[in-house]
């Protein structure tokens, strides 16, 4: 049986994100209360708050740790349309590390912010919903995606000061040319779901006022943009959409990222290139009307992101989370998605021909620009789970890409694992609710039935 613990009163409002550092010994959390907290795991497997500070002027949506080779760095995205870069004070960090080594458990550093704001990235015209550092072998870079549907790539040009970041790429995810679209194994279902970012959601302990204010600010901003009318058909409200991204962990293929936005219900796999970025593949669970795409392994050409079709299709829904699995020597990639329809889907993505890919990258082209079918990336959906029965807010892989976890509005974290025959099955679930008569103060309801 899994041994679990419960951290009480983590924040004063709804927790929007939690992410581990590279070693899994520190945990950063953010919330609608505009604060970031950093927790450290002690020798008793207990999480203790290490730092706590007000980071933004609105709800904090996402966090991302940089690779430790660059230092202790966190990037935070917020509804205030900014991304901030935070660095832990070296002197303070060394003092605490020395304190821990000496075993002075009675000496506690006051809970004041030891994280210094190094830079503020304020190019977004909408609320920033996701941020993620690029794999470290590409340098100190990060990607952001906001409700203006723009994917932005930043690179730090002043290390180690971290004060200067250059916007190296700015892509409209909806407008960028769509890549081949694989067929899908089953038809998606449309569900009307209340989520933490909707004012109609009924979440115990959540601040509806703060959510409403954040949404109103973003909607007012969208109304003032020149192309707001063109985007109006993509969703009735900002809260109905989903904005997410995830980097490919394998450096062999270059800087490749999976990104989704709005209510299109698709994920675009984009090759970031200095000369011309383009879409390698489009993952869509909405079945195409072309008969030639009926096979789940066939690569079609229908563009499911077309607003003329996606806005009227009954099968479209928002993708709220995407996670690219570590490759660990596989000849293919695994990409998982979670949506507002309550489904967790796993895609098997196979890159194009190695020789052709290398030649295209050298020429500044994506694999999709080659005339040869061998150069095209292909994908097939290998799993589709709807056990959450409610919106899925997060999907995440383990370090080897063999176990997928998902968190939904049903209040449970569910695990998925492939069998020896590469058939994906449920591997258990963990409930964060406490039992009525807990046997231990920090016990949680645990259900490990497959």
UniProtKB/TrEMBL annotation:
Organism: Psilocybe cubensis (Psychedelic mushroom)
Location relative to the cell: Nucleus, Nuclear pore complex
A molecular function (GO) term: structural molecule activity
GO biological process: cellular response to amino acid starvation; mRNA transport; positive regulation of TORC1 signaling; protein transport
Main location: nucleus
Pfam family, one: WD40
Keyword Protein transport: yes
Gene Ontology CC, one term: nuclear pore outer ring
PANTHER family in the cross-refs: NUCLEAR PORE COMPLEX PROTEIN SEC13 / SEH1 FAMILY MEMBER (PTHR11024), NUCLEOPORIN SEH1 (PTHR11024:SF3)
WD repeat coordinates: 8-49, 53-96, 312-357, 385-426
Similarity remark: Belongs to the WD repeat SEC13 family.
PROSITE patterns per the UniProt record, alphabetical: WD_REPEATS_2 (PS50082), WD_REPEATS_REGION (PS50294)
Chain residue ranges for the region called Disordered: 283-312, 426-450
Name this polypeptide is given: WD40 repeat-like protein
UniProt keywords, alphabetically: mRNA transport, Nuclear pore complex, Nucleus, Protein transport, Repeat, Translocation, Transport, WD repeat
